[in-house]
Amino acid sequence: MIEQMGEDETKIILSSFSCPLNKDIENFLKNKAIEFSKRTTAKTHLVFWQTDDRKYKEFVGYYTVASKVITVDRDILSNTEAKKLRNQGIYDESRHTYTVPAPLIAQLGKNYSNGNDTLISGADLLHLAVNKVRKIQKEIGGRFMYLECEDNEKLLAFYTKYNFKIFGKRALDRDETDVKGEYLIQLYAMF
Fold first, then answer.
1. What HEC string does 8-52 produce?
2. What's residue 5's pLDDT?
3. What is the pLDDT of residue 2?
4. SS3 sequence, 24-36?
5. How far, in Å, CA of 61 to CA of 107, rounded?
6. Alpha-helical runs (H) found in 39-121
7. Mean pLDDT, 10 residues at a time, over the chain (191 residues)?
8. Rg (CA), the chain
9. How far is residue 99 from each of residues 44, 71, 95, 108, measured CA to CA in Å?
């Protein structure tokens, strides 16, 4: 979008995003997404809804994907999961952990401006992000992905419904000031 429309026009579109349920999601898109994209740290994908006749288009949400690795404790894995991790990563015998490459779905948010959040479900937005990661993995290999969320019962129920499993916690970074709590729950999925 930046290449097609320019940075100033892209910033105008991003400024229309509102997420009162999670200010960190809003802050990232408005203040960090472009810089992260320029540095190739993470790529943000905007999601638009449009009418069948393509007459009207609305900015309904976004997701961000980053290249990362995860470390998973062997004790929380089934034998089948451990075997899959062993085939994809490195086992640290002293720590009883596997370290594997796994793309991070770093941000996922619906746009509440003008009621646009009603034009897409959270499940559809997650599905788009998962499909993007799987498409990338078809090109480069891999079968794991992960995400992080606040320790919130509703969020955890949502992600586990879509086959993500809790594997750990991560302390908040200094710049994660709009997040509730002192840590994020880490969840992974394998395909």
1. HHHHHHHHCCCCCCCHHHHHHHHHCHHHHHHCCCCEEEEEEEECC
2. 79
3. 76
4. HHHHHHHHCHHHH
5. 10
6. 79-88
7. 82 95 93 94 96 92 96 92 88 94 96 96 98 95 94 96 95 84 94 81
8. 18
9. 25, 4, 11, 24
Q: Which two tokens stand for residue 53?
A: 């006749």
What does the pLDDT read at residue 159? 98
* Contact indicator for 68, 104 with CB cutoff of 8 Å: yes
Consecutive H or E run containing 156: helix 153-161
* Cβ–Cβ < 8 Å for 29, 107: yes
Q: How far apart are CA 126 and CA 47, in angstroms?
A: 11
**Selection from 147, 101, 144 nearest residue 122 by Cα:** 147
User: Given the DSSP bridges, would you call strands 104-110 and 144-149 parallel, antiparallel or unpaired?
Assistant: parallel
b/e burial code for range 78-98 (CB count within 10 A of at least 16 → b): eeebbebbeebbeeeeeeebb
Ranges assigned E (strand) in the chain = 43-50, 57-66, 69-73, 90-92, 97-101, 104-110, 144-149, 165-171, 183-190
- Under 8 Å between Cβ of 70 and 81: no
Positive or negative torsion for Cα 160, 142, 68, 133: negative
What does the pLDDT read at residue 177? 77
Is the domain covering 2-68+103-190 a CATH 2.40.50.90 domain? Answer: no
